[in-house]
Amino acid sequence: MPENIFIEYFFFVQLFLAILSFLFLGLRFFNKFSDERILKFLRIIFFIGLFLVCLKVWFLFAAQYRSWLGSYFLPPYQPIGYFLQYSWTHFAKQPVFDIGLGIFFFFLIWLGTKISGGRFFYGEEKYSGGLAILLNHWPVNILVFFLVLLAGILFSLARRVFKGRGQGGAVLISFRYFWPMVGLGLLFLGDILVNFLGLGILTV
User: Fold this and answer.
1) Residues 6 or more apart from 39 whose CB is under 8 A from it?
2) What is the C-alpha separation between 153 and 19, in angstroms, rounded?
3) Which of 22, 54, 67, 84 could form a disulfide with 180 if both were Cys (CB 3.0 to 4.6 A apart)?
């Protein structure tokens, strides 16, 4: 069935959205897009990603319900709570947690932008950052924030050393182009890093 294909190959959906956000910000880097256009496109990609992850959860519930039709695991033999608890424990908890974390970081970056008056984050970072976290599963997605922070600091320091030697003033840090880069990279290397850092115990 189409929903089973969607679930089975959902990684390619994640990959496509991550590459798309990476390409759009790449075009912004080379001044092919204005800030207004990149904000618009990344907003659309973020909400499409959010919708598709929610759709995956719905399909998982539907597939489990269909597989149990005619059995004693569904009403009237068992309360509907049994089905919901089983589904939550075995497959729904992970993507729902990812959705919650993606939305949380979206609002966190949005709040940081409001408080700083746009000095710390660009307008589209709440979308590119939220998407990078949403598309990776827990606990890989928690690495997105720390790796972007580390990459932004190291890049800014390197730029200061090689281009600003002898100049005064503060070191400015920008994370703008690192969200899609880190998010895309962790789709491939995230599980390896989690095992290397011993973060597997955080798996929900």
Assistant:
1) 123, 124, 127
2) 23
3) 22
Domain hosting 115: range is 2-202
Six token digits for residue 168: 């005064």
pLDDT tens-place string over residues 68-93? 998 899 988 999 999 999 999 999 99
∠ CA 146-151-157, nearest 5°, is 130
Token couple for 116? 């700083």
Which residues are CB-neighbours of 151 under 8 A, at least 6 positions away?
175, 178, 181, 182
Give the DSSP letter string of the chain. -HHHHHHHTHHHHHHHHHHHHHHHHHHHHTTSS-HHHHHHHHHHHHHHHHHHHHHHHHHHHHHHHHHHTTSTTSTTTS-HHHHHHHHIIIIIHHHHHHHHHHHHHHHHHHHHHHHHTTSSS-TTHHHHHHHHHHHSPTTHHHHHHHHHHHHHHHHHHHHHHHHSTT--SPPP---TTHHHHHHHHHHHHHHHHHHHHTGGGG--
How distant, in Å, are the alpha carbons of 96, 97, 104, 138 from that of 204?
Answer: 11, 9, 17, 8
Tokens matching residue 50: 């959010």
Cβ-contact 131, 102 below 8 angstroms:
yes
Digit-coded pLDDT (tens) for 147-175: 999 998 898 888 878 776 545 555 557 88
State pTM to two decimals: 0.90
